[in-house]
Amino acid sequence: MANENLGTRKSTNRHILDWIEVTSRHCEPDKIFWCDGSEEEKRALTQEAVASGILIELNQQKLPGCYLHRSNPNDVARVEQCTYICTPSEDEAGPANNWKAPREMYAMLRPMTKGSMRGRTMYVVPYLMGPPGSPMTKVGIEVTDSIYVVLSMRVMARMGQVAYDELGNSDDFNRGLHCMLDVNPERRFIAHFPHENKIISVGSNYGGNVLLGKKCFALRIGSYLGKREGWLAEHMLILGVESPTGEKTFVSAAFPSACGKTNFAMMVPPPKFKDWKIWTIGDDIAWMKPGVDGRLYAINPEAGYFGVAPGTNAETNRNAMETISHDTIYTNVALTPDGDVWWEGKTETPPPELIDWRGNQWTPDSKEKAAHPNSRFCAPMTNNPSLAPEVNDPNGVPISAIIFGGRRSSTIPLVYSAFNWIHGVYVGATMSSETTAAASGAVGQVRRDPMAMLPFCGYNMGEYFKHWLNMRKNIKYPPRFFHVNWFRKNEQGEYLWPGFGENMRVLKWIIDRCNGRAHAHETPLGWVPGPEDFDLEGMENFSPEQFAETQQMNNEDWKREVLSTDELFMKLYSHLPKELIFQRELLVARL
Ligand code: GTP
Ligand code: SPV
Ligand code: MN
User: Which of 208, 230, 252 is the last residue of a domain?
Assistant: First the structure.
């Protein structure tokens, strides 16, 4: 390595030093590398990753600073079946989580991690979740033997010295240990210890399993801390809408994995809305807390986007294409002969030849997909042309609307609004979606995914609903709740709503409702816009009749829908707040 001092800038925090001492004695690495987040460090580690085949350098003329990583083909998504919440009692983790007692989990993991870094380097990665100086920001230290994790963490979080500065001498930081082991699904565990603010992840080297600041800390541990400390850690994007008169309204939205958060967060409005501007605060995670002025404030704890590649193109998401045009790590996309990247949906016709995500020759005649359906880009938020200037504001931004949404090919209308906070919590709690490639397992099956948090809530889901209901008491000016579905289909299997930039029209109705300017009709589900309340101007080949089809509400379908939510309610019954049972009864009465 060029500079001998690289990797030697140790923390001076006694608690970190003690923990690294104990952890390194256990994992027995050849070397400990202390990351400082510098550009020099990035260059050196990137070089090393390329030399060892962990990263493939892409065409630097076309994609400056971009690299491709191919994961082990057995390790391409989050693994819910291997994800555990380890609390002293099973009841605390609740029926929606896998549970093991901490002592048992440690007993299982200890022999696996013992000596697991022999012949390897242990990287110490200090990072911040949230803007520096924010009362909501938290510090984590991830210890990992993966150089890919180090390079990705420095994109996804504010990494290095900035975290030591924020922490000072405090002991209040998340301890995360990641050991790749032999990347064997049989020995893959993502274990969370909420009471100790601790995470141990073994046997994977993929995204949400190993970038421990993201789903593990910011959501699973975060939601637990939020319950204790009076805030919310949510699987939500945050965006700002600026009107032609300069009025800015911020909203957050929870859609399950691979259901449109990144696209919505950096949407480019259609020509009819050319004087409107969308500003991105975050694309995946929101930490929200009541502010002193009685409103709910949100920060994005992250600093980058770990986004779905397939389907991303200049038409659907121009801002994303710009964001990932430089300084981006791609995982499991296809490679062109001239060192460019490709995935399904990037261009209408695929290139004549490619190397697929597994590293094999690929042609358009090949049966397999060229890019993995859950292939991803990892890019710094500062690359995003629509990055909101408020993104580093330590106070966060005031939220006017909370939007829930899922991927449902039938039943669920394009948009409706809840009657009030308790009804809004019910709408979020009974959310559902068809499963996607973002987690291993079957794709396309409808399941309940309350608030898009089913895989991410670090404690009992019933208690989580109670926490949501309780939050209302500390918010004088609560946001309004909405539900959207971009994915409804007709009998031919085609999407009824064009989506992407056109979602601006739905957003416009939502913020007009929040600002007391839009009309709506009352239905059993909530308030909905009629065709006269909804701006369809400038939409080619989209009639008011088609709009009515996207909004259609069928009573028989909805009765079935209520019955299918009962399964979740029964599962959570012992902790389910009675308010939600009453909401169910009211809905049944209205139907
Ligand atoms: P995670 O990163 O897994 O949390 O996903 P996400 O919620 O950020 O989803 P993302 O925006 O990456 O979109 C997932 C997939 O849905 C991509 O293939 C998109 O092209 C597609 N998609 C996003 N928005 C829309 C939409 O409005 N309509 C349709 N039809 N597809 C969409
Ligand atoms: C998700 O699955 O919601 C993601 C991708 O954002 S991962 O980081 O792998 O969790
Ligand atoms: Mn996500």
Answer: 230
Question: Which residue owns the Cα nearest ligand 1 atom 5?
Answer: 258
Q: Report how far apart, in Å, the C-alpha atoms of 195 and of each of 137, 300, 499 are.
A: 19, 24, 42
Q: Please check whether residue 74 lies inside any domain of the structure.
A: no
Are 124 and 143 in contact, with CB atoms under 8 Å apart? yes
Our answer on whether the CB atom of 307 is closer than 6 Å to any ligand 1 atom is yes
Of 215, 268, 308, which is best to mutate to test ligand 1, by the most ligand atoms within 8 angstroms of its C-beta? 308
Does the active-site annotation cover 259? Answer: yes
Q: Clarify whether residues 218 and 278 are in a common domain.
A: no
If asked whether residues 154 and 270 sit together in one domain, one would say no
Structural domain tally of the chain?
Answer: 2
Task: Quick: pLDDT tens for 210-245.
Answer: 999 999 999 999 999 999 999 999 999 999 999 999
Q: Residues 35, 82, 86, 259: which is the catalytic one?
A: 259
Cα of 332 vs centre of ligand 2, distance in Å, is 14
Ligand 2 atom closest to Cα of 308? 5
Nearest-CA residue for atom 24 of ligand 1: 260
Same-domain check for residues 268 and 198: no
Q: Which residue segment(s) compose the domain that 86 sits in?
A: 3-53+82-230
**What proportion of the chain, given as a percentage, has pLDDT over 70?**
100
Per the domain annotation, does 381 fall within a domain?
A: no
What is the average per-residue pLDDT within 205-212?
A: 97
Is residue 262 lining ligand 1, measured as CB closer than 6 Å? yes
Return the pLDDT at 2.
59
How crowded is residue 80: how many other Cβ atoms within 10 Å of its Cβ?
16
State pTM to two decimals.
0.98
With left for phi above 0 and alpha for psi between -120 and 50, is residue 576 left, alpha or beta? beta
Mean pLDDT on 132-147 = 98
Do 283 and 425 fall within a single domain?
yes
DSSP state of 138: E
Q: Is the CB of 265 under 6 A from ligand 1?
A: no
Residue 189: φ, ψ to 5°: -140, 135
Task: Report which protein residue has its CA nearest ligand 1's atom 14.
Answer: 258
Pick from 156, 255, 262, 505 the residue to mutate for probing ligand 1's pocket: most ligand atoms within 8 Å of its CB.
Answer: 262
- Considering the domain architecture, whether residues 226 and 248 belong to the same structural domain is answered as no
* pLDDT at 1 exceeding the cut of 60: no
Tell me what pLDDT residue 3 has: 78
Give me the DSSP letters along 474-509: G-SSPPEEEEE-TT-B-TTS-BSS--GGGHHHHHHH
| Separation of alpha carbons 197 and 18, rounded Å | 16
Phi, then psi, of 397 in degrees rounded to 5: -125, 145
User: Which tens digits make up the pLDDT trace of 195-205?
Assistant: 999 999 999 99
Q: Please answer whether residues 179 and 113 qualify as being in contact, where contact means their C-beta atoms are separated by less than 8 angstroms.
A: yes
- Given 230, 263, 291, the domain boundary residue is 230
pLDDT (tens digit per residue) in 91-112 = 999 999 999 999 999 999 999 9
Q: Does 130 map to a domain?
A: yes
